[in-house]
Automatic annotation (TrEMBL):
InterPro entries per the UniProt record, alphabetical: Ca_channel_alpha-2/delta (IPR051173), VWF_A (IPR002035), vWFA_dom_sf (IPR036465)
Family annotation (SMART domains): VWA (SM00327)
Organism: Desmophyllum pertusum
Record GO terms (molecular function): voltage-gated calcium channel activity
Record-linked Pfam families: VWA (PF00092)
Residue intervals of the VWFA domain: 219-418
Highest classification ranks of the organism: Eukaryota, Metazoa, Cnidaria, Anthozoa, Hexacorallia
UniProt KW keywords: Signal
Listed name of the protein: VWFA domain-containing protein
GO cellular component: voltage-gated calcium channel complex
TM helices/strands, residue ranges: none
Length: 418
């Protein structure tokens, strides 16, 4: 082993000298004519042989002993399956322990004292740990509190912290442990130096939270009014609301956007690579979400307020996204954001809602949001899908009456006065 190290050390030194020699040789022979490729080739061969020791290394590798072994896939697959199963089982045990500790903390009547925010930790208590590849404090926890968190949010007590420490001791391969609450607080173990602003992080928008809170995939269409009246703060608020919805979607969800005024448009209306957005919903992947956010940011107000075309396009996207697996039983939502009374006739609007939802077995829930002086009455009727009130008889052959009852239940919070 020692002789090998000496040999390769000498080779490295020779390589350095070889590079210098090659530079000297080439620089000394450069003139107004181009370099002779034969000369360069000869010098590179000498460099590889004498400086890098290519021949010597090749001889060494040629002398190594090896043996062939046939691996049968059907024999190793069960072994791999057992190993993977054991890994998941251990992590399930850890998750259940944390779940139990959190539930017990919430059940205890005593209010836990607020913990130090991760952005304000005492850096002198942090020590580098190779498992986390950063400086941490293994004796404490810290919290990240969203700027939109509930007033006086609930904090976890010492029982949870003790459980996290015990888990780390018992399972050294388990690294970060954390819990995000519906109030906008994330408890993190161990403590680390958070470089972000204290109120910037909101666990409720993170994939781990969204996928847990809404495990069932759903289809969502955001319908945004961009008529001439949607100026200033109203359109800004609608854009921010739409982007917030996009941030909270599960990657298994499907989503589409319809903007409307005199016409109804989608991110794919202009064609190009994104024309599929005009035909069906897209999976809520980071790439698709990014494209839709860019589309929302570029919306400008002009034109009239044509409801019917907007609903026609929204239902078309939903219908074009039905798969054999989901059928008509999937949860489907239309979020309708507007500030004004429709300029088109109400009867065609409610006929479109009735007929197109009937095609989907009345599986579509419509949530309406009014901005400013929006016509609250018609938005409530749309949320209820009360077509009869506007001269459009309801379908008597409804696939599932409980779906309509669900739609009506959304009325109480379907309107947001801003």
């Amino acid at each position: 082993m020692t002789s090998s190290r000496v040999r390769f050390a000498n080779t490295a030194n020779s390589a350095i000298l070889g590079v210098l020699s090659l530079c000297v040789i080439l620089s000394s022979q450069v003139d107004t004519s181009l370099l002779d490729p034969t000369l360069i080739g000869r010098e590179l061969q000498m460099f590889a042989r004498d400086a890098l020791g290519v021949d010597e290394m090749q001889n060494y590798f040629d002398g190594l002993q090896y043996r062939k072994r046939t691996i049968k896939g059907k024999d190793i697959i069960p072994q791999l399956a057992v190993k993977l199963s054991d890994k998941f089982k251990t992590r399930f045990v850890v998750a259940k322990r944390l779940k139990k500790a959190v539930e017990e903390s919430y059940a205890r009547s005593a209010k836990a004292a607020p913990q130090t925010e991760c952005c304000n930790v005492d850096k002198s208590t942090l020590k580098y740990d190779e498992r986390f590849r950063s400086k941490v404090d293994l004796d404490n926890v810290c919290v990240k509190i969203s700027g939109s968190a509930s007033p006086n949010p609930v904090h976890l007590d010492e029982g949870v912290f003790k459980e996290m420490k015990d888990i780390l001791k018992m399972y050294p391969f388990i690294k970060w442990q954390y819990f995000g609450s519906e109030q906008g607080v994330m408890t993190n173990f161990p403590v680390f130096d958070d470089k972000e602003k204290c109120d910037k992080y909101d666990p409720r928008y993170r994939p781990f939270y969204v996928e847990t809170a809404t495990p069932e995939a759903k289809d969502v269409v955001l319908v945004i009014d961009i008529s001439a009246s949607m100026t200033g703060e109203k359109l800004y608020t609608a854009k921010e609301a739409a982007k917030t919805v996009l941030d909270t979607l599960n990657p298994k969800d499907q989503v589409g956007i319809v903007s409307f005024n005199t016409l109804a448009s989608t991110p794919g209306s202009v064609g190009g690579q994104r024309r599929c957005y005009n035909e069906r919903l897209a999976l809520a992947t980071p790439t698709n979400i990014g494209s839709m956010k860019n589309y929302v940011d570029g919306l400008v107000p002009f034109g009239e307020t044509q409801y019917r075309l907007a609903f026609e396009k929204a239902f078309s996207l939903l219908k074009g996204s039905i798969s054999k697996e989901s059928g008509n039983n999937k949860k489907r939502l239309i979020l309708f954001l507007t500030d004004g009374t429709p300029t088109d006739s109400k009867i065609p609007i409610f006929e479109t809602i009735r007929n197109r939802n009937f095609e989907l077995n009345n599986s579509v829930v419509i949530l309406t949001f009014g901005f400013g002086s929006a016509d609250q009455a018609i938005l409530q009727d749309i949320a209820k899908q009360d077509t009869a009130k506007h001269g459009v008889p309801a379908n008597t052959s409804v696939g599932d009456i409980t779906v309509i009852l669900t739609v009506q239940a959304y009325t109480s919070f379907a309107i947001a006065q801003l």
